[in-house]
From TrEMBL:
CDD domains: ABC_DR_subfamily_A. Keywords: ATP-binding, Nucleotide-binding, Transport. InterPro entries: AAA+_ATPase, ABC_transporter-like_ATP-bd, ABC_Transporter_VariousFunc, P-loop_NTPase. One of its GO terms (molecular function) is ATP binding. Residues 6-235 form the ABC transporter domain. Pfam families: ABC_tran. SUPFAM superfamilies: P-loop containing nucleoside triphosphate hydrolases (SSF52540). This is ABC transporter ATP-binding protein. It comes from Steroidobacter flavus.
Length: 242
């Protein structure tokens, strides 16, 4: 694994004539949990769609484990685990069928053992053979996360993936991600509004405002926020956004 798992280089992206990303750059090395913060509508999901290959930037480049998502998308996607939005899941498939299709797309003969173990911990096994369109939001969210973890991805990308999860399930997922990070198996990029996740789990964080990264916080700064108390990160975020 190359040490720099994600390298976003001066990415611009548009919807029609409206520019949503205006020269975004960031780097995420192996073993790092990076949180992307920002209000609704500032471009967080757009950046994640560019990383996933669902949207092509108007300029710039994105490298996943050294492979360009633009010029070498197949190699980049082979190293990516991207949790789609719950509403994008195929409602007429069962959870098991979704996992099997994703596993085959990743070149796996079977569903990964560690993903099956996490499914048991999340009490998802009882939903394996139910159709996705019968799932609650939380159950869909669990499936999205399980799909993203198949095939030992080098980069795991999550967009508000803890929304709808019960506290016990959210904690199980966080611990699972931390285990992968500690082993140096991947990097995690999470777009979130939750400052609690930033304060307790992130190694680094960045604030995206109007398509630009306006502030980044280092591991040392985030560690200081943990010592200072619950309002420290909130104050820093408000100051950076003003």
């Amino acid at each position: 694994m190359t040490s720099m798992v994600l390298d976003v280089r001066q990415v611009h992206a548009k919807y029609g004539k409206r520019e949503v990303l205006s020269g975004v750059s960031l780097q995420v090395p192996a073993g790092e949990w990076f949180c992307l913060l920002g209000p609704n509508g500032v471009g967080k999901s757009t950046l994640l769609r560019c990383i996933s290959g669902a949207l092509t930037p108007s300029s710039g480049d994105l490298l996943i484990a050294g492979h360009s998502a633009i010029s070498d998308p197949l190699a980049a996607k082979q190293r990516l685990g991207y949790a789609c939005a719950p509403e994008q899941l195929p409602g007429l498939l069962t959870g098991r069928q979704c996992l099997e299709v994703y596993a085959q797309a990743k070149g796996l003969r079977d569903i990964s053992a560690d993903v099956l173990a996490l499914a048991r911990e999340l009490r998802f096994e009882g939903y394996f053979d139910s159709f996705v369109d019968t799932y609650s939001l939380g159950t869909r969210q669990k499936l999205c996360i399980l799909l993203a973890l198949l095939g030992e991805p080098t980069l795991i990308v999550l967009d508000e993936a803890f929304n709808g999860l019960d506290p016990a399930s959210a904690l199980q997922v966080k611990h699972h991600l931390q285990h992968r990070l500690t082993d140096g198996r991947c990097a995690v990029l999470l777009a979130t509004h939750s400052l609690d996740i930033v304060e307790h789990y992130a190694d680094k964080a960045a604030l995206l405002i109007d398509g630009r990264i306006v502030r980044e916080w280092s591991e040392t700064e985030i560690a200081a926020f943990r010592v200072q108390g619950d309002s420290a990160m909130e104050t820093a975020l408000a100051q950076a956004a003003s």
